[in-house]
Structure formats: structure tokens, C-alpha cells
Amino acid sequence: MRKIIQFIKECHSELKKVIWPSRDDVISSVKVVIISTVIIAAVLGFVDFVLLLGVQKIF
Prior knowledge:
This protein has helices at about 1-15, 25-59. Helix content is about 90%, strand content about 0%. It is elongated. The protein is built from two helices and no strands. By secondary structure, it is an all-alpha fold. The chain has a domain at about 20-59.
């Protein structure tokens, strides 16, 4: 039981050392991820559409 309590204390002390990102940093990172995801989805959708047209012309 003593080891568990010691582990929890060490975890707590390590979490105090963490530099958490600010709210603005998190929001800007989320914006980048969402925009990147939308752009990649659009590119992949366009490539899929072009390949579909190509396959339809072949067959």
C-alpha cells in the first residue's frame, strides 16, 4: 500500500512540472487540424472522383 501512495505522490509532483498550453494555443492548434483535415479530405475526394471517371471510361 505504501508503494501505491508513493506512486500517486510522485505522479502529482510530476504533473506540477508540466507546462500546459494556454487556451489560445489549443484553439489555434485545433483550427490548424480542422483546416488541414478539410483540405486533405477535399483533395482525396477530388482524386477519387477523377479515378472513378477514368475507370468508368475504361469499362
